[in-house]
Amino acid sequence: MRKLQGEMDHFLRKHFAFLASFWNKFLPNGVPNNHSLDFLEQDLGSLNPTLDPKDPGPSSSLFGVLYDFTARNADELSVNRGDKLCVLKEEGEYVLARRLSGDPVVGYVPANYVSKIGQEPVAQPVWYISGISRNKAQILLLSSPNRHGSFLIRDSESNKGEYSLSVRNHAKVRHFRIYKDPGGSLYLEKEHMFSNLEQLLAYYTVNWKVIQSPLLQPCIQKRSSEADQWERPRSEFKLWRKMGEGCFGEVWEGMWKNTVPVAIKIMKQVNMRDDFAKEIQNLKSLKHTRLIKLLAICSVGEPVYIVTELMRKGNLHSYLNSIAGKELTKHHLLSISCQVADGMTYLEEQHVVHRDLAARNILVGDDLACKIADFGLARLLKDDIYSTSGNAMIPVKWTAPEAAVYQTYSLKSDVWSYGILLYEVFTYGQNPYEGMTNQETIQQITRGYRLPRPNNCYPEIYSIMLDCWKANPEDRPTFLILREQLFSIYKWAPHPFS
Ligand code: ATP
């Protein structure tokens, strides 16, 4: 009996290696899971290179830079995203590289900041794929290298929060609905409930006859080189301190490979993967110094991490309300307004409407650097207007009347929100329309009411606010114009230290 059990264990482990963590938990004699995070740790102080720019070394090869990196000591090399490097030596978590453009300087760059040019995209087996429709799942499973017995779990299209199991059975794909009971248990048949998808898969891997479709191997999804460029193993990140929480999940301050301080957004629930996917897509395609920068993604397994640059002072709304925020001069407030207008001008050039511009979605870093964040709602405008079908979760007090009432978003509705943001900035974080409900706000706005001029606000700035709140979207300025106006006010406004 013991022998039979041993053989069974061996068989399951060998053939269903993708469920390793499950077997380790439930088959006690198994190989210990030695996925320690600590093997990556390295004494960075021991890096002491001898640099010879003339010696490319035998293993030199061409790499591209994925992220800007600023050297912190004389041995390191500052590089910008897109630079080409000749890598002379790979040393643990660093590569010794020579820059191929500009001066031929040599120095160390973190290995995760570069990627080999021309490297083939890697194909990875994965059993959970988010944001994939029934049709796409079918096409994927029927295409090579997938074969009979390949399977995947996807979000159910018709029942939000539930899943479907798609399995290739020779030349056909069969789909099974995975139900969720009110307690959160998952099941295909009511008599077999599971607390997670991994357990469910483990059961039907062994009892496949019930569904008459063997689950032989997880689907192989060819990952594009773009996806590989951002994807990093979760073990590279350490979480330090929770900094905040939004409706998608928690945000933590953390460290990447013990060297780079980062912000890590951790997804709350699997069924929010779609919303995350949109935010990630926007972060990947939009690049500007005034926009929060995506550094990495961990989307293999749970929970999903979105890793961005760390903005130590948190969101602008809280910062303006803090003791340090209250000490900001009008000149500082102008600088913040100019930076946001600069970032929004970039979005305008890209025809992207943010839809949730507000002080809470601006992040503040050292030296009062401000960056626009929260692209969860951002959309590329195909025409000039983006319409949504519902108005759930609209931040009414920041939203232009035509967007709040008719859900028609445009760059000009972002301009309205920018006016509200100016109000937040020049009132040191006061909430707009204090004491009014959302309904009252819309009514008052439609009747022509506008927020009053904040105390000590330059009249020129208030006049810009009023321009942003013109009833007819066409009459509102563009961000390009706003940026010019604000920059010129910034230039002539008395500087507190001059
Ligand atoms: P939602 O995403 O629900 O619209 P939100 O913008 O408040 O709401 P998150 O983007 O999840 O939610 O961020 C929550 C909080 O975490 C922010 O308000 C901010 O204080 C902090 N935070 C987010 N990203 C960073 C970052 N890169 N650096 C520093 N703090 C951050």
TrEMBL record:
PROSITE patterns: PROTEIN_KINASE_DOM (PS50011), PROTEIN_KINASE_TYR (PS00109), SH2 (PS50001), SH3 (PS50002)
Keyword Cell membrane listed: no
EC number: 2.7.10.2
InterPro entries membership: Kinase-like_dom_sf, Non-receptor_tyrosine_kinases, Prot_kinase_dom, Ser-Thr/Tyr_kinase_cat_dom, SH2, SH2_dom_sf, SH3-like_dom_sf, SH3_domain
Domain Protein kinase: start-end pairs: 237-498
Domain SH3: 58-119
Signal peptide range in chain numbering: none
GO molecular function: ATP binding; non-membrane spanning protein tyrosine kinase activity
Subunit description: Interacts (via the SH2 and SH3 domains) with DOK1. Interacts with KHDRBS1/SAM68 and VIM.
Function: Non-receptor tyrosine-protein kinase which phosphorylates DOK1 on tyrosine residues. Also phosphorylates KHDRBS1/SAM68 and VIM on tyrosine residues. Phosphorylation of KHDRBS1 is EGF-dependent. Phosphorylates OTUB1, promoting deubiquitination of RPTOR.
PANTHER family to which the protein is assigned, alphabetical: TYROSINE-PROTEIN KINASE
Annotated family: Belongs to the protein kinase superfamily. Tyr protein kinase family.
Protein name: Tyrosine-protein kinase
Gene of this entry: SRMS
